[in-house]
Amino acid sequence: MARKSARTAAVQMVFENMLGGDGGEETLRGLIEFTPEEDDQKYIDELLSGVEQNAEALDASIEKCLKGWTLDRIARVDLAVLRVAAYELCYERETPDAVIINEAVALAQKFDSPTAAKFVNGVLSTLLSQREEMKAPEENA
Questions:
Q1: Burial environment of residue 85 by CB neighbours within 10 A (0 to 12, 13 to 18, 19 or more)
Q2: In CA terms, which of 15, 30, 37, 53 is 20 to 30 Å from 5?
Q3: How many whole angstroms separate alpha carbon 140 and alpha carbon 30?
Q4: pTM
């Protein structure tokens, strides 16, 4: 399975949805540079529905990690990357955290800039540390 390519496609479709598109099957075929196998398509669908269903919680989690920024100041493409990565970090436990963050940073650099990549890395690293802090009291109980 091409998980990296599937993640890239999901970010592109989340971005399109943010701009008012429908992110349907035709859009997917026009955006991606590979033909998804069944596992790839399933993963893309899981990411898209997960981001959509948890949008408020994801945005709230991202917003808590911003220093001197608000969600509306973030470039839409960077916000799409952050939403997909935040979903994976908070809800999907199959992929290692470091892989999620590294691929999100690479996507921010690919679709925006090195500065955006550093920003995405900082936000996701903060999100990861906050997630770990929230788990600690439960583990001690």
A1: buried
A2: 53
A3: 49
A4: 0.85
Stated length of the chain: 141
Q: How far apart are CA 117 and CA 41, in angstroms?
A: 26
Element spanning 38, H or E: helix 38-53
Question: First vs last Cα of the chain: how many Å apart?
Answer: 39
User: pLDDT tens digit string along 4-31?
Assistant: 888 988 898 888 888 876 555 555 555 5
Q: Which of 72, 1, 20, 116 lies closest to 85 in space, CA to CA?
A: 116
Domains assigned to the chain? 3-140 (1.10.940.10)
Residue 108: what are its φ and ψ, rounded to 5°? Answer: -60, -40
